[in-house]
Specification:
Helix content is 33%, strand content 19%. It has 529 residues and is an alpha/beta fold. The chain has two domains: 34-98 and 304-515, 3-Layer(aba) Sandwich (Aminopeptidase); 101-170 and 217-300, Glucose Oxidase, domain 1 (3-Layer(bba) Sandwich), CATH 3.50.30.30. It has an eight-stranded mixed beta sheet, with helices on both faces. An eight-stranded mixed beta sheet has the order 3-2-9-5-6-7-8-4, with helices on both faces.
């Protein structure tokens, strides 16, 4: 009996010791309510209103440049529509001074001699018009530095300035529209954790890199300044990356272009690569080129404040309803089209996501707040100001009371392509949770979870102050080749089935985040530099 007792004691002690030294098991994941998920799928995939929202924001409204009448029209429509859905506190929230609005009223450009040729052209935002129909001769400028530029001094009055470019058109042998392949998604899933405090990458920073690559130095700025000083009629710019009639065009560079006291800049017309290079060849050969321009643009400076659209589905839990789950997208766009993929798609999807939740009569425990941002294209201005006002200023990281109340923020801003997964933005703690939330949507092509960061859009404003902010992985389609900041960014480039899928998944993610017992886990707070 002693030996039996000793053996039993030894076995118990061994098991106890093993238990003390074993790797602790991961906490059990919350149970997914499959019945609710199925209802969300049915509502989102079979009864969708997402294309109705997209139609209103694009064809009906037109371009939505920040602080333009088009932006304000779209913002007021969205706030009214969200209120009709039953959301509360729906309205426009001012975030601070932006500057002047701008709107294109007319644009006609054609070569008159040596023969007639109409051209695809759009002025850069925040540049002035031509004050009526004007004919003028092209002045070819063959200079690469300020010294060479001086030989054109005194020759620019009433001329159209063309900076010589001798590059050759490069044929493209790749499809404009693509989807992620299995190998692409596997590389994302296998990615290593990014640095703890990565440098931010905003839309404005991307455009600066593009301009630096295009210009190499500040010489084009000197050319523009000389042309303005000598009262040139206009300056022509060549569309970067564009081909076959696609123009990549945004705004005049620098914040000074739209600040409330900025001087109106010289008419700067972006034309297609093919037309630009043709004009260069003709002018270089000695041909006299006359063009006819009629450009009208209006500046708006009566209200330099800018506004985000905000609305809420109130939480139902007495304890948790003061906490917030946010979803959002940027409402502003550029002037050459109706901003369908950048980013009416994201706004329509987020409006549809909250419509799904409301229409099903779901009662989220936490409050769900939707935000449609302005000023994203100028550097995430609307979301950054919102985060600074409500949560914290990344410059000093002094946390406001609302910082503790936010569970997480979900963003869409990569075009019309369907969701293939989600970027964790370096937050390993949510990996298993998000992977489990994607399981019901594996059949829709969404199953990749990557630890990687992605930049250039509004989730970064939240991540910058240590709040969980996430952007979904989306199929690229033709976003970077045809629609992003181009004259082709119109309703017809939206893919209805993809937008329905996005809205359905976003609705499920947002609802489940609002139902958790605890807020989404966070990374460590960023360190001040």
């Amino acid at each position: 009996m002693k030996r039996i007792f000793s053996a039993a004691f030894l076995l118990c002690f061994t098991l106890w010791s093993y238990a003390q030294n074993a790797v602790p098991a991961k906490p059990a994941l919350p149970t997914i309510d499959q019945e609710i998920i199925q209802k969300i799928r049915t509502e989102g995939l079979e009864k969708s209103k997402v294309m109705d929202f997209a139609f209103q924001l694009t064809d009906v409204n037109g371009p939505r440049l920040t602080n333009s009448p088009g932006y304000m029209k779209a913002a007021n429509w969205a706030a009214s529509e969200l209120k009709k859905m039953g959301l509360v506190n729906a309205g426009l929230e001012p975030w601070g001074e932006f500057g002047k609005g701008w709107e294109l009223e007319k644009c006609y450009a054609a070569m008159k001699a040596p023969y007639y040729k109409p051209m695809i052209a759009y002025p850069k935002a925040w540049t002035r018009g031509t004050a009526g129909l004007k004919q003028a001769e092209i002045l070819l400028v063959e200079a690469k530095d300020s010294a060479q530029l001086q030989k054109y001094a005194g020759q620019m009055a009433n001329k159209i300035i063309l900076l010589y470019d001798e590059q050759a058109y490069k044929q493209s042998f790749k499809a404009d529209a693509t989807r992620f392949q299995d190998d692409d998604l596997k590389r994302m899933a296998d990615a290593k954790a990014p640095p703890a405090n990565p440098a931010t990458d905003t839309a404005a920073q991307r455009r600066r890199r593009e301009m630096q690559a295009l210009m190499g130095n500040n010489f084009p700025v000197l050319l523009r300044e000389m042309a303005e000083k000598e009262n040139a009629l206009a300056i022509l710019s060549m569309s970067p990356r564009g081909h076959d009639g696609t123009l990549f065009v945004s705004g005049a560079s620098g914040r000074g272009a739209y600040s409330k006291d900025a001087k109106e800049r010289l008419c700067d017309l972006m034309i297609t690569l093919e037309d630009y290079l043709s004009l260069c060849r003709l002018a270089k050969s000695g041909q006299k080129i006359n063009m006819e321009l009629d450009v009208a643009a209006r500046f708006y400076a009566s209200d330099v404040t800018s506004y985000n659209v905000v609305a809420e589905i109130p939480g139902s839990d007495p304890t948790l309803k003061s906490e917030i789950v946010m979803l959002g997208a940027h409402l502003d766009s550029w002037q050459a089209a109706t901003g369908a993929t950048d980013n009416a798609a994201g706004c329509a999807v987020m409006m549809e996501a909250v419509r799904i939740i409301r229409s099903l009569g779901l009662k989220p425990r936490r409050t769900i707040r939707i935000a449609l941002w302005s000023g994203e294209e100028q550097g995430l201005l609307g979301s950054r100001a919102y985060v600074k006002k409500h949560f914290a200023d990344p410059a000093d990281m002094k946390l406001k009371p609302e910082h503790e109340k936010l569970s997480g923020y979900f963003n869409i801003d990569n075009g019309s392509g369907k969701i293939r997964g989600i970027y964790l933005q370096g937050n390993e703690k949510v990996k298993d949770l998000f992977a489990s939330w994607l399981v019901p949507f594996h059949d829709l092509g969404a199953q990749t979870v990557t630890i990687s960061n992605t930049g250039g859009t509004d989730h970064q404003s939240f991540d910058a102050v240590g709040l969980p902010g996430f952007q979904f992985i989306q199929d690229p389609l033709e976003y970077n080749t045809r629609t992003h900041h181009t004259n082709m960014d119109s309703y017809d480039h939206l893919v209805p089935a993809d937008l329905k899928q996005i809205a359905t998944i976003v609705a499920a993610f947002v609802y489940q985040a609002a139902m958790l017992d605890e807020k989404l886990p966070r990374k460590d707070l960023p360190q001040l530099r």
